Please model this.
Amino acid sequence: MPATVTGRLHNRTRRSRSIPLSLLRRGRVFDLPLYGILRLSDLAREGLDRSGSYRFADHIYRSEPSGRFVIGRWIDALLLSLPATRSFRFRYVAARDEIVAFVTDRVATGGQLSIDVLSAPCGLPRELADAAQALRDANVPLDRVRFHGLDLDTGVLREAEAFASGRGLHPFAAHRGDALDRASYPACADLITCTGLAEFVSDAELERLYGIFYDVLTPGGILLTSGMQRRRFSDYLLQLAEMPTQYRTPADLLRLARRLPFSETTTYSDPNGIQTMLRARK
Model:
């Protein structure tokens, strides 16, 4: 890995130094009380202050309400119960379950020295840690499994390594770099999970990302990645937090993925039809 890593944090979408001042400039005065109330929730405050941060995502994945005072925790619980938030968590559950099924199958069939599982970008690699725990609980041996996390943010990678260590996720290899740069990746991976990045890149960048994933995957390897469809209320909250989102239908994801020679591409959605999971086999 080169000493200097270039790239941009694709989920760092906030541009205003002050959201309240931005709302005033845009004439959205009636949004100010809602902004103030939402900040009592830890989830909303993280989203408002740091746009699509890994802590924002992990708060939803953990689904444990927290906030300032009783009302803040109540607001947090209310936000976590929204259909869009439950759909957001669906992608973590899908990634966790895909890892469990894939590793279980590979271990059962044997014939491979190692199984490499990569999360890119990884944030806190909760889907890896929870999948590993589920596999241990099912008495699936993990001695051949190697876990990897890729992220551009050095601080996030340090937290990811500490999280992995605390959860007994080993070996866990951290790779620093831009997900849109092939040089950032390990030589190969058998399973790649990528949730929450497609929503912040253009079609051209997403096609490029799929191409990198295809190149990294071993023959027969699986890519599981996500996309999001627009809903009025969730889009309103995302716009309030200055998180402009690239919405795509299942057909959009398939169209881009099928420009690569994957042997199999399928999609499925959460019960609310907001999050779409794309599953592609090399």
User: Anything to note?
Assistant: Residues 19-81 form one domain. The chain is about 45% helix and 15% strand. Residues 83-109 form the longest helix (27 residues).
